[in-house]
Amino acid sequence: MKSAQLKLLSNLCFILGFASIFGSIAIWFLTGGTAADSQAHAERFGIFVGLWAPTFFILSNRFDRYAEKKPDPLR
Prior knowledge:
mainly alpha
């Protein structure tokens, strides 16, 4: 992969990490409902989506490091 493509993937993973955090909060608040079972489901699903954030941030970091390390043949 080219360095520019790796930088793009790094930026995309970084954005997806924050989207996962905000999506987790939105899922938790918006899908709660009034019954105890639906509130528990919303909480568990929100936590599940929120756990994606560290993975996206780690991938972003790795893609960024790899883009800086790998020489670009077009230069």
